Amino acid sequence: MILVASSKCSESIQLGDLQNLTLLRQPMRIYLDNATLQCTLGEILWEAPPGVYQLCWCSQNSGCGLASFRAAAGHLQVTCPQGFYSPSSRCRACGRGFFCPGGTTARFPCMGGGTTLGVNAVASTDCLCDRGYFEELGTCKLCPTSTYKSTAGSSECARCPSNFTTFKPGAVSNSSCIEESSSSKDVQSNTSEVPAIVFNLSLSLAEGDADETVRKQLRAALLSSILASVRLDASVVELNFANVTNASFLGRRLAQSLMAAVTMRYPTTEDAEGLQSELDWNALRDELGLALQQDENLKGFEVSAISAVELSSVNVVCPANAAKPPGVTLMRPEDCACNPGFGYDEGACRACALGEYKSALSNERCVKCPEWTSTERAGATEPEECKCEAGRYGEDQCAHCPKGFYCPGSGKSVPCPFNSTTESGGSSSSADCKCLPGHQPSEPSDSPPCEPCQPGRYKRSVSNEKCFETCPSNANSPPASTEPGNCSCNEDHYAQLNDEDELDRCAPCTFNGLRCSGGFLQNGSHAQPEAKVGWYKTGKTLAVQCLVRDAAGASVCQGENRCAEGSTGWLCGECPAQWGRRGHLEFCRQCPDSSSAWLATSILLDLGRITSLNFIMAVLSAQGATKQMKLHTAILRIFQRWKDACSVLLSVNLTTMTAFPWSEEEASEEEACDNCTKQLLWPPEVTDAIDGIFALFSIVPDMNVGFMAQCHAQKLFGDKWYKAAMLAPAVYYLCLPVLTILATLLICSIVVYVVLPLARISGLFYRKEAEALADRVLEVLKRKRPTDSTEPGIARLVTLVNESLKGKALEEKDLSDVLDALDPTKLAKGPKVETLRHAVVETGASGVSAAELLETDDCKIKEAICKHLRPEMYLGLFKPEPPPRRLLWDSVPVIWLTLMALWPELLEKFLHMIRCAPMVEDRTDELKSPVHRLLPHPDVLCLRDNHVPLAAMSLCGLFTWCFGLPLALFARILLLRQNRQDHENRRRYGYFIQGFEPRFWYWDLVVKRADIGMMLVVAYTSVADDVKAKLLLFPIISGIQLGITTWVRPYANPQSEILDFLEFVLLCVRFVLFSTVAALLIFFPSSSVVWIWATFLIVLLAAAAAYAGLHFLAQVLRTVSNELKMDTEQEMQETQMDREWLENSKNPRQEGRKTFRKVQATKEKLMKVAQISVDWLLTMFEPDEQLKFCWSADQAMPDLSEPNEKKERLIPRLRSSQAAESLSHRSCGRRSDFPSTLP
What we know:
The chain crosses the membrane at residues 730-759, 958-979, 1032-1052, 1064-1084, 1090-1114. InterPro entries: Growth_fac_rcpt_cys_sf, Tyr-kin_ephrin_A/B_rcpt-like. The protein is of the alpha+beta class. Among the domains are: 2-78, no CATH class; 183-321, 2-Layer Sandwich (Alpha-Beta Plaits); 339-388, Tumor Necrosis Factor Receptor, subunit A, domain 2; 595-747 and 884-916 and 938-1085, no CATH class; 768-781 and 789-869, no CATH class; 1105-1181; 1182-1239, no CATH class. The strands form 25 sheets. Strands 18, 19, 20, 21 and 22 form a 5-stranded antiparallel beta sheet that branches. It has a 3-stranded antiparallel beta sheet with strand order 1-4-5, with no helix packed on it. Strands 51-52-53 form a 3-stranded antiparallel beta sheet, with no helix packed on it. α5 (595-625) crosses α22 (983-993) and α25 runs antiparallel to α26 (1087-1144).
């Protein structure tokens, strides 16, 4: 049998104290089960006291009384489970803030600032940071100021709202957050009511005395045990022996019991209630008892009982001169802070001594006042109470009186009187104040003691002396100047500095394009010459006039090297990215969005403009080549060359032109203008009018391909946009002749293969009237050959004509109704045959009479008729329905004319690409040296870097198109030699040689183009660097050309030298134009005189243009008049034949005759009205002139002469463009009226 005993089995048996385990209180039987001894002990309850028990046994046969269990059978160990511990004879809950691993191990507290979420923590990992603490590296630290933590756990401290903070670290609630702006000087309260847990301990002492020493030890032991159990600070727990006073307690013998009152303060009611409900008070009692038993001096005490635990509140009162901080719950008096004016010293708040202050509610020491300061009382609360001693001043610290002040000892500094100061600091009297630099003592006694120095004078030192130092000549200084650096140059002067960058002298500002405002700049440096509006500063004293003007006519240079919007770079002559200019010296415009579409459109329009206009000119030239007397093309060519030469004046901006030095001096003397730049004051309206006159004759404006090419190149090449924009127009103009050749072939193909066939289908004819008349005669001769002719010669002529015209295609309607009623003899003698005679005579045998024609060999007559009636070329250029190769051959006249028409434009564009202008700039060696810059792109230095490819393209274009093309055409015509006047060659090259004497056929290709080339070279290159030099060369070149042309007289004389006279007039106008401008520049008259001469020039140009236009119109009217006369004569002949047919018809109808007469009468009236109208218009330009025409068989050409009395009237004023074409062949001396000249 087994017995559980709490003592050794060999000693007296004591039964174990296992509550409610009755089974263990009596012997238990061991029985054998399957060869194993077993014993049932039962289940150990929670109330079982932990410990080690002995198992004692005895044999059942021995009776097994208590004394019989002497044999040890083993041990029985009873321990507490995890989360529990045994402070005495019972297992107790571990408690909040502790963890209990279980077994024989005691409980362990969590780390400082740590707690547990329950009372049965089993390991250290169950410990978490308590409220007001956060975890860092395995430890719990107080939440810093401006943060709080209201719950235990692993969360971070929460930050107070914006502009809020906490008074001290470790805040456990957001109520601790206070406004940062709240003053810590405000004392709110010195008392705080906090919740508390109150209970009593009943202590008993069996014997012995409780003296004061024992009492203190007892108090300390109890407090230590209580603090260890509840984990509170000693300052918030109070323990008092409530029933014993100090008087009776001392030395009194404790016979029975002692009552100790315990008060534990908590920050919140929730904390107090939590402890009240969670703390195992029995365990606390056991802990207290165990703590007393462990102290040798306190073993006699025993905690007999703990009274009921109550939740109460206590008032925590701050010590004297302390108060409750804002946002802080007072748990102990130590939580109070010393009031302002009181410092924390040796655990108490003591008033700040003299010379100290404290302004905040805190437990800090008082702050000593700055040196040389003190307070007037103890307990100072503000630093402002620290006052300086006499002779010093300041608010934060005492210092010597500063310079310009004196300190009489009041702690404040007193400024010296106005415009005065002291020589050094530390002054204590107003007598130490002296006049500031730049000031001098005042003369009147009642005025301020010091007054400023006069302008132009300065004083450097602090003294009571006068201002005797002066600025250099032409310089001034503001009042109260203190040094030479205050002196600045007057207006119209600029500063010259010495080696120390001080003003040395003020030199006159007499530089063109620069203005000197004088004074200082914002950065304090001396103002230097700055560019005027319209000028660009290239050096310290150098400026270049800007050439580009905006849409309003104002210069893009806005002065001081500032550029208008859309302009940048040197001379403000460059365009920024995504900007471009349409022409030379034009202002920059912003590029359109779809530059590629605009570029393609502008190229097509430009090619269409060039080819269409020159195609028309080629048609006029080709038609004029068939008749020697047509001068339309020659007049247009003369006017175009004149316009090209005069247009160079537009390349010069006369409105900003300055005079020559001698002219400027004279003008300054007359108008009393000192140091001013005189300008010509040319009226811009006159320049616009000249441009308008020349633009009026351009018909189609420029398409701005260069502008679009610049914009498109910028988008294509990105970062390299500048170089691409500069080269793109050059590429276009270099390829333009090739593009125009292709465009010319295209327009010729359209005309030949589309327009002309449509015209033939619509009934329009492009052959000469003589051919149509010959076709009608041919029809007559085919159907009604004359059998009986009274004139054998006529009959033979008709036969020859018939034979010559065999196989001729007819294009007119069938005339059988008319031919049936005609008599062959009358037909042979009729007007149609007569007209045919004239046609043969005019083209095949000019100068041969009708009788001689009849006697001429038949072969020659056939040849003459065939030559006259052969098919003509359409528009004088194209064969009917030519194949492509023939079309290319027929298009050569148009191609030559188009290429040569491009010559002035290409020459101008290519010259612009190498138009380098010298600009004087400052160099690093301080020498003024001209730098050649590309004028269209001033940022580019000529023949450097970016200019090399552009110059190469320019030279290529100049040699290929501007020099090589005219040279090739000249060589081609030169090789024709005697065949230049051949019909085919005149048709092909007639535009260039028409109107000239045969020996001067080269005049337009060589002389005129050399003239235009020289004008353009002077205008658009640096042959003449100065613009004024260009204007002087223009009249010289014009005068040379006028003299050569007047002397040589290269034009032919078919119409009283009308072309020579027109050329002479236009060259005179050109010479007068450039000479007048040069004279105005040389003599520099007043603005009113300039206006008068400018108006005269614009009127002269307009009159010259109108004069050339009237000549052209006169030629047109002459042609129309002659054609109307021939149409009238032909119509009269046809009407006579139709009338004879009606009279001789077999069954004539009376009504038909009347209708015929009415129709013929109406037709005759219309023809007559047209003739009269044209003749009337023609008389406005030329009066009628009577000429005598004699035609005889012994002369090679007809003889034209005028009566003697008419000779004076034959002096031409307006030369006609065509001689008389209607000649009478009947008799010598018959007079015809041919218009010739105007009176």
